Amino acid sequence: MYLFLAFxxxxxxxxALFIQVGGAIGMWPxxxxxxLTAVLGTWLVRTQGRLALGQLRAxxxxxxxxxxxxxxxxxxxxxxxxxxxxxxxxxAVGFSxxxxxxxxxxxRYLRSKMTVARFQMGPGSMHGRSYPGSTPTDNSGDVIDxxxxxVSQNKPRKDPSGWVDGPS
Length: 168
Description:
This protein is an all-alpha fold and about 170 residues long. It has a domain at about 35-115. Helices cover about 60% and strands about 0% of the residues. The chain is built from five helices and no strands.
């Protein structure tokens, strides 16, 4: 129902704003503003996206929970789509999603509405926090199945091994 209302109300709001702004400053300045916000928004999305990607890489390297950088990246992606959509209301929402404090507030709100039962990175390993309802894993009994060959007893070869060409 909310999605239906959004698809119904957003175009109506955009048309009303175009009529108001176009009536106040004229058609060409209105179109120039729309194009300018799309260009500026594209540049801002690129820079913010690079920062979010760097934060995501850092969270993976440090084996931290990547939820927050992923959420920021998703919000930046939505902001880019809104900024490329012609209109003043969508531009205002898109530009607001490019502000890190706004993204953090949205992330906190969404996080408060969700419950994480378990967070796991890799098979059988529990990195980060233990969440209520999750079952702890015991990593002390890990078994690594492997084949090996003892090469310390092999005699050195005088002819080429076949992997490389011998002397010509």
